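Tip: read the tokens left to right.
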């Protein structure tokens, strides 16, 4: 898979201190959010952009404003599987927050193009030391992320490819901000850790049932309610974990 790097759009294009577009950032007190925004840039994240590589130092922390990022782990034989998905409810900053920015065994890649507020890892660590609210919020978010990772492990072991595919499409739909997004079967297979033929066999019935349309990588969600009925219960568990983070008072 081609490795792309984020492209800065410039600090002048940030949405503003009162609303960055990232729900985690926007949950912070205005003064804490202002300090981060002043040190950040708005970064384009095309499909396939790598936010950080496994085993390498993490130079930046990303707060997506639109689009979807995935944390992916791989085995020695090259097999891959997604262990977590994040969008405008989250951040790539957990390893930096925990002080383990050089010891991460996952790759973070953009699965749906978008944008992110990007701040240097050193600057982010400084802000965590300065802001009690940021430390509390990141602690809660870390627990939610661990919930998602644990649920993803159970999901990959206990649920069918069709159920997992429906769950993944719902989570992507939540974060993409649109009913239409670009997604190849090859990339979905990469995310789910299965063969492309398995993805083809899963998407076919969903399309025939009118839940979605799919043509040359272009996906449109047509019947979200039916798609949710098809997905496993992991979707609700994962979504609820992050919603609780954002609903709690600091």
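Filled-in amino acids:
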């Amino acid at each position: 898979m081609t490795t792309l790097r984020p492209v800065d759009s410039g600090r002048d294009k940030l949405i503003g201190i009162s609303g960055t577009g990232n729900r985690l950032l926007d949950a912070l007190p205005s003064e804490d959010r202002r300090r981060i925004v002043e040190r950040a840039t708005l970064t384009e994240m095309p499909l396939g952009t790598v936010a950080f590589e496994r085993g390498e130092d993490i130079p930046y922390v990303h707060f997506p404003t639109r689009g979807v990022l995935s944390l992916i782990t791989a085995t020695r034989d090259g097999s891959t599987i997604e262990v977590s998905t994040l969008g405008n409810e989250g951040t790539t900053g957990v390893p930096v927050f925990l002080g383990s920015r050089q010891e991460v065994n996952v790759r973070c890649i953009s699965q749906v193009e978008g944008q992110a507020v990007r701040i240097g890892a050193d600057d982010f660590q400084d802000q965590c030391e300065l802001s009690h609210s940021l430390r509390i919020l990141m602690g809660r978010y870390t627990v939610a992320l661990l919930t998602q990772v644990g649920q993803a492990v159970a999901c990959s072991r206990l649920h069918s490819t069709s159920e997992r595919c429906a769950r993944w499409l719902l989570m992507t739909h939540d974060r993409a901000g649109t009913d239409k997004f670009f997604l190849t079967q090859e990339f979905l297979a990469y995310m789910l850790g299965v063969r492309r033929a398995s993805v083809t066999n899963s998407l076919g019935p969903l399309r025939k049932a009118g839940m979605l349309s799919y043509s040359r990588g272009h996906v449109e969600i047509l019947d979200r309610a039916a798609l949710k009925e098809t997905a496993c219960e992991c979707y609700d568990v994962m979504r609820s974990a992050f919603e609780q983070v954002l609903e709690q008072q600091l």
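Residues 64 and 116 are 4 Å apart (CA to CA). The longest helix spans residues 132-158.
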